[in-house]
Structures are given as C-alpha cells and as structure tokens.
Design a protein that fits this description.
There is one protein chain. The chain is an alpha+beta fold. Helix content is 17%, strand content 19%. The strands form five sheets. Strands 9, 10, 11, 12, 13 and 14 form a six-stranded antiparallel β-sheet that branches. A two-stranded antiparallel sheet has the order 1-2. The protein has a two-stranded antiparallel sheet with strand order 3-4. A hairpin with a 2-residue loop joins strand 9 and strand 10. It is rod-shaped, with a radius of gyration of 40 Å. It starts with 20 loop residues before the first strand and ends with a helix.
Length: 335
Amino acid sequence: MRLPSFAALVLTALLPLSAAAATVTVRSGETLSDIAARYDVSVASLMRLNRIKDPDHVEIGSRLKVPGHAASATAGPGRHRVSEGETLGEIAVRYQISSRDLIALNGLRNADHVELGETLKLPANAVLPVAKPKKEPINVVPGASQHTVGQGQTLSQIARAYNLPMTSLVNFNQLDNPDQVTVGMRLYLKAPVATVQTAKPQTAVKPSTAVKPTTTFAVNTATAPVKTATKPVAQKPATKRPAAKASKPVDAVIAKQAEWRTYGPLQVDWANWRPMGGSQVVPSLNDKGQALYLAVNCSAGKINATGADGSWKAWAAPSSSFEKDLVKDRCQARA
C-alpha cells in the first residue's frame, strides 16, 4: 500500500525515542499518518522506531511499534473498566486524553487490543464524568396538603405521584417557572385557604388604609359556587342556651350557608358579608378556585381584596364593570 511522502522525514535523526513502546497492527485503508495521529506521535518517530526507509510503503497486517512516553504521564484517581466492543481510541476520546498516555500508564504492548473487563488507570488530566445526584423517591402521604421537594424531584414527577394536574401545582404555589423547583421547597398540594380578620372599631376608613385583622373566619372552598338564589334559604332559629361564664368576651363568627353570586371572574358568598371597621368583607373564590376576601367601603366608594399571601392590597375605586356592579349591589343592600 502506497503512502504519501513527508518532507519532515529529514528531522528523523534529530527526534529522540521514548523508552516505552507499544505495538499496533496496520489495518486495511490505514496510512502511517493515520496511526501517528491516533497515538499522538510524529510520523518521523514511527519511521525511525520501525526502521521504515520508504514512507510511501507499509504492509497491511504488519506490526509497528508506537513510541510511548511513560515519564510524562501521571496516573490520577480515575479508573475505567473496559466494556464489550470498546477500543483504546474511544476510551481516550471519552476522557479527553491521548491514547499513548493510556498505553504508557497501563503497560499495554498491543495498542489495538484491550481485554473485556480490564480496568485501566487514567492519567491525572483525564476529564472524569460528573456523578449525577441520587434521586430521592417521592413518598406520597395520603391527604397531605404540602410536599417538600427532595433531591432530583421535578414538578411533573410530584404531580404524577399525587395524581394532580401540573397546572394546579403551578397555580397553588404561584410558580413563575415550573422547571425551577429547588430541594427543600415546600409545595402546596391543595389551594391554600385565605383568611381575613375583623378590624378594631374605628369611626371612618380612609381609602388608602388597609384593614387590620384581629378575628378569623375561613372560606369553605369545598362548597361548589352556584348561581344567585332567587329565594332566601330558610334558617331554623337557634335554641337559646345559657351563656357560659368567661373571664374575657370571645369574638366568634358563625358562617351561614353559602349563597354564591357571580361577578365577572369572581364567585362571591353573598350570605356571609361581615362588617369590619366601617367596611364590609365577604369570602370569595377567583377563576382558579383559590380563596380570597373582598372588602367594600360604601362611604368612600372603594374596593379592596387579599392577595396570594392573604394580605390586603391598596384601596381603589372600582374600575371594571363587574367591580362597579359588586359595589353598587352591596351598598344598595346595606341602605
């Protein structure tokens, strides 16, 4: 087989040979330059070590010595176990090292052959793969309202484990990016129930003043909202019982049966309006089924609502048609 000539052969006599050498069998279609490039050596050193005088001729099947450089290669902590079908060149590429470093470190005499199951030492400069963190299994707790994110867990895996739509988890937890959940994050598995508390009595409520809470009552989100009832629901009068003595008065609020009315994207429990320091507050649901509270101040013509964290926003005049209808209906009912 004819090989291209190389002008660099004039340098052959000037190139020192390494003390270590391996052997390689010339395969069909291979050139001397192919072998030199594969083992990161010069063509001139190959010719000198193998006493090749004609660079344009090398026989298929002939065995060539490949110079090594054991002195320049230092073993690192990495090891590689040879799998079926792997070659030395593939292993070198995988760890971004040279084939001759592998040859020198492991004392290989045949660079074209490595034994299945053989453990090879890797040079100190080998790029080792980063170990993936071990995934923690998702332990589903029946009836749980929250889940703490474990190592390697994703939002989609958590949703499948608890048989929930991913959109529900995103909405419950107000997530901006569903792909970014961190280890230790606590996720709501159910819509958090918002609470509102009764304010201390005051003579007037300024539009810019938020209501300060003191007593809590909760929204029953399990009750499905219905259209406005045309007739009031009859209530049985409560049986009077002697009041128990107490050292301090207890401020308790007893919720009535829900009477849901629709205002735009909101469902308002019309039967459970409560006075709060000159304003009226009502439990409601938004279009995602999440609980919140609305407040109406008839004297100021303002409206307010609780946010995702349960705190009140700023008072403002109703802007949309459904907000105006809500304020109008409530203020007319009070009058």
